[in-house]
């Protein structure tokens, strides 16, 4: 199929249902399983989606994010927001190391069925952490919101031994006390191929040619659990939540590495496990509409373990068998405390976020009948980071006008300890983060607009700071940089929004300017490292159109186009290019109880510091049948109709050409069943706002 026909089909498959109510938001009826977007109003700048609103039972978090405006993602779980991958992910409103160092693996494994709502916020207010150059993506774990005992049980299965199951339950224990619990399990199948074509050059003369052919099969498994309680009594609100997420898999990889004068085959037995345990408490006292106070405390414990067993069979120039092992053991402890108060139109507060991380990498080589540690390739590294913040914000509503202004000051202390060198690298710095927003909202006419500015920061994650060679992946050696500086960004946007009962139209203009951009660089020796670039900037436009042309068909189309410019150093050498993407959903109500959806996205070529990521597209289809008088539902879902989910990355410099093609067995057919019990039909709505 030619690309032109694919794009036409993709645009046709971009829809969802919109229904207006008497307020300025648009409400989605849950039995239609839809997504909605409301008018711009006040300082609520989030775009929200409930995964339950889609016919997507078998999807991962990475799949669901492909439906959001402004977002670009790939099969590896890498996410870009308005062209930048510097995004902060939150779980239940809080940042976490769990979604830092190995975020991409979590994106493609975390089941969407465990998430109640996803919020994308381009311009968070100053009461929140300033982390995330282009904004935040908040994952709200699923919980029942009903005032009666209610919940859901679901099962699903797909080709290649894929399974999923889960249950969520909530109940009021008294008129003032609520309790929630949930558990989700998913077993996936992942067949991955990886082909590297590498040419090294010196003075325009080819010095080496290399082909790396890799294939691997794994069955990743994920468990997500949560417990929560909320007590509302007079002017007091208490909340307590506990959650855990565990992911693990064992895969066997086969790698064939051919060079001009060398050849080797590698068998890699790779085991990985990711875990996070989180506990949070919250208290709020509300004296009246003008005066309130709140405090919350969060603790998060995250671990990452990786075991590698290699058999390297050297074929040329001299046959040899090399056996070695490589182990990674990482632990993170995070403590976060917030105190804040509101008096009239002012809100002020204090926040501290302390992170302690330890990393131990050990390599062992087989020799004379036993494995011995290779001291030169083993290392330990510790990271301690403390962020202390004060903020003050002001907001005021004058009829149709709303103004918001705020300032956040952050002091950061960072210490990187390298045990092998007995070296401690410290950084201490202050930052001020101003914010401004002006909005106009005419509910009667349906018109609104908003002008906003935010300054944000992106601090390097643990793996970007590690200066020792990480050779756990035979395809790629990584070496971090402990002297990396934080990336500072200035974000400005102008948005317009029009809505009526059947139509919504939202164009946005945005501009982002970044200093000290943190970039990944592949060196001539094929070692991947990180450095601060001098300057980069992006400017673009977004357009969202939501329409219901007939009663049985609904359409949503989102598109983004932007210009990206990168300047690596003060000499003024620049790379620049245009990029664009579109995504959406088509919804057909075949009967009052049957919904058919077609989802798709297309992403153009994307510029990188040293080359580009080639264009890609994807189309999925799902159908949902309501049964048991609306209490149950059966879904059938087909992902990646054309087998188009692949990624091609090109690095092209005077001394290095590298083409990487990755593909995955992503064409799946999911069959799912869900039973919702004790649902109050009169309150059976999802209110999702922008």
Catalogue the unreliable spans.
1-43, 680-690
Based on secondary structure, the structural category is: mainly beta
Describe the largest sheet.
22 strands, antiparallel, barrel
Tell me the count of domains.
1
Helix content: under 10%
Signal peptide: 1-20
Protein name: Outer membrane receptor protein involved in Fe transport
Organism: Coprobacter fastidiosus NSB1 = JCM 33896
InterPro entries: Beta-barrel_TonB_sf, OMP_b-brl_3
Describe, in short, the structure shown.
This protein has 690 residues and is mainly beta. It contains four helices and 42 strands.
Describe the structure.
Residues 292-675 form the Outer membrane protein beta-barrel domain. Keywords: Cell outer membrane, Membrane, Receptor, Signal. It is found in: Cell outer membrane. The chain is built from 4 helices and 42 strands. The protein is mostly beta strands. The chain has one domain (3-685): TonB-dependent receptor, beta-barrel domain (Maltoporin, Chain A). It has a 22-stranded antiparallel beta barrel.
Give the secondary structure arrangement, pairings included.
Elements: H1 3-12, E1 27-29, E2 46-49, H2 61-65, E3 71-73, E4 79-81, E5 88-91, E6 94-95, H3 103-109, E7 115-121, E8 136-141, E9 150-158, E10 162-174, E11 177-187, E12 190-202, E13 205-218, E14 221-233, E15 236-259, E16 263-286, E17 291-316, E18 320-343, E19 346-367, E20 370-373, E21 379-398, E22 401-418, E23 423-442, E24 447-458, H4 462-465, E25 470-473, E26 476-478, E27 487-499, E28 503-515, E29 518-522, E30 527-532, E31 535-550, E32 553-567, E33 574-591, E34 594-603, E35 606-607, E36 611-613, E37 616-627, E38 632-639, E39 646-652, E40 656-664, E41 668-677, E42 685-687
Parallel strand pairs: 5-8, 26-30
Antiparallel strand pairs: 1-42, 2-7, 3-4, 5-6, 7-8, 9-10, 9-41, 10-11, 11-14, 12-13, 12-40, 13-15, 14-15, 15-16, 16-17, 17-18, 18-19, 19-20, 19-21, 21-22, 22-23, 23-24, 24-27, 25-26, 27-28, 28-31, 29-30, 31-32, 32-33, 33-34, 34-37, 35-36, 36-39, 37-38, 38-41, 39-40
